[in-house]
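Hey, weird one. I pasted the Probable purine permease sequence into the form twice and got a warning about non-standard characters only the second time. First submission, copied straight from the form history:
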Amino acid sequence: MDSIQQVELQIPVAGKESSRIQMLEDDTNNQQQQLSRFSKDYSWWFRICVYIIFLLVGQSAATLLGRFYYDKGGNSKWMATFVQSAGFPILIPLLFLFKSSKIASSSSSEKPSKCHLYLLYVFFGLLLAGNNLMYSYGLLYLPVSTYSLICASQLAFNVLFSFLLNAQKFTALILNSVVIVTISASLLAVHSESDTTSTKSSVGKYVIGFVCTVSASATYALYLSLLELTFKKVIKSESFDTILKMIIYTSFVATCACVVGLYASGEWKILTAEMNGFQKGEVSYLMTLIWTAVIWQIGSVGLLGLIFEVSSLFSNVISTLGSPVVPVLAVIFFHDKMDGEKVIALLLALWGFLSYIYQNYLDESKAKSSNSDVDNSSQNGIIKDLDRKQ
């Protein structure tokens, strides 16, 4: 009887020991998951920072080079449009380099066919070519500071398209950002007299430049939202070469469309005279066009990378961040006037940007808090189950 009672008393002890071992294993697994999550977050933030730098540097430098092209004797709108997409061959080596890192996130039956992909590339390429042409008109007839600040209105358009196409949710801070940035761009519309004088353009050309830039901003916002929708709903891939393919094939189609426009408009006949009459010389003319094409592609990598990793709206907000940078550089290099209206517009654009960034911070904090609550509840559930079994 004593031996039987001793065995019966040892059973609960063994059960407690096994439960403790199970809890230790669960804690170890949770720590490993947290370390893995931290490592993943670290690499993700590193990619985001690289894409942000690419976008800001590419956008600012390419805009200034475009203004330099026009100021020093360039006058071909189709050539200015051509260089915005013609630099895609520099990305082809990267396509082969990152091809091995491809990770399929969907089964082959869910992936789009090559025919559908080619149709998407043609559609986005033609849309990009038309959008770049409108931007070229705006950059020709407007000073850099005015052009860049009007481009900030694309954020308002992007919020609208993101809500309709990408299920973007409105919050008070996002709405505040949209309104403030829209007001910032609208301030420049009533300031045409001084800008017209500074650019030596007629009022009619100023209006054309303003309308083309606003229309290009709306088209660009639609382009970004459609790209995000395509990445998430059609392509469904998680590899960097997906971004490169979208840039390369789309830019190829846009470049072909620009070549057709260049010959159809007859502007190809004046290119030789334009190069010979360039104020800084023929070499400077060629280098301006080549570096503009290269830098636009760097900006495109950053742009599509942010769309792929986060959203089109976030990518557009980062583009808006470049709005206060470009006018300051334009004042330094091109002696644009920075009067009271533009200073107010700069501050409003920066305010709108910070409002959206703060909303992102709140969303991320809320997501981390909910994830931690889920982890804690799951651990408590495991402990309760073990207690019941004991």
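That's the output from the first submission. The warning seems to come from a hidden character in my clipboard, not from the data itself. DSSP finds 15 helices and no strands in the chain.
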